[in-house]
Amino acid sequence: MDQQNNTLEPHVLMFPIPFQGPINCFLKLAELLCLSDIHVTFLNTEHIHDPLLHHTQVLSRFSRYPNFKFETIPDGVEHETPASEDRFMEVIAAVDAVTKPLLREMMISGRLSWKSDRPVTVMIPDALFSFAVDIAIEASIPVICFETISPCC
User: Based on C-alpha coordinates, what's the Rg of the chain?
Assistant: First the structure.
């Protein structure tokens, strides 16, 4: 919080669907936000986070941004690495069932809420996560959906 004028510093929560293509789009947007000195928390489900760290250079890429951090959240997905595209609906359903109540707790009363040291001031979920929009509205946080699916779909 800026002590001089009592306003919150911008803090964006980014929440992509747990597949590499959409995560790449979100990471690019996160990097642009970091370049603008905006704090970014990148929320990955457990399903994708470990493969992302082990098979990419994402940690070295973002190490130059002190205003960037990863968080993870359970997802209820069996950890086949990587999940095949034919499991897309299964992954989305598992995330909806398991992650939704956990994200709600994080945003309403937990480590990303207004009660935390650095509360989230805007949420950018993947457009497929409609439950995240409901949670952001409940938490009185502006929400901007980010569509990562190819227009040909």
Answer: 15
